[in-house]
Amino acid sequence: MLNNDALIQRLLSEVQAFAGFTPDNAKDLLAHATRVDVLPGTPVVTEQDSGREFYIVMAGEFSVVKKLPSGKAKVIAQLHPGDTFGEMSFLDGRPRAASVIAESKGLLLMFERNSLIYIPETAAKIYFNLASQMASRIRTTNSLVSLALEGSNKPDQTGVPPDALKTHRNLKNK
Predict the structure, then answer these.
(1) Which of 79, 134, 140, 167 could form a disulfide with 83 if both were Cys (CB 3.0 to 4.6 A apart)?
(2) Which residue from 166, 162, 60 is spatially nearest to 103, judged by alpha carbons?
(3) In terms of Cα–Cα distance, which of 133, 45, 38 is closest to 96?
(4) pLDDT single digits (tens) 75-117
């Protein structure tokens, strides 16, 4: 299942983590993937747990939930097909920074860090792509922090990505 041509084409065209991959790179990576089927309400990763895997959402909707200092849990992001999660623990081996919970029946592809040592060229590409994604997320987070510090909700904020403004508005309304 994990090595068919239709899946490879879908990953190459829809998943940012596969940017710049050749079909052979995708086949190499998929040979080291594990299919994970989840039911609604299933926690896939839990904040503060250890983990050395990252995931690609193939089907379903998932919530990223962060525990606040007050002890309350807050949804900080929604994940959809093509999105990835778990990259931080995959890259640095530290505990999970947030929980991810299935909101619907879903399908994930899981990649373990230790299995990528067998495909160094492809591993280098996935590490680069994950680092690029994380840099983009950090930029968005920096924008969200600056909006929160200013108490602003203006759609014309200079240098603030439109997606960050949308996320800011959604978080304020929850």
Answers:
(1) 79
(2) 60
(3) 45
(4) 988 999 999 999 999 999 999 999 999 999 999 999 999 998 8
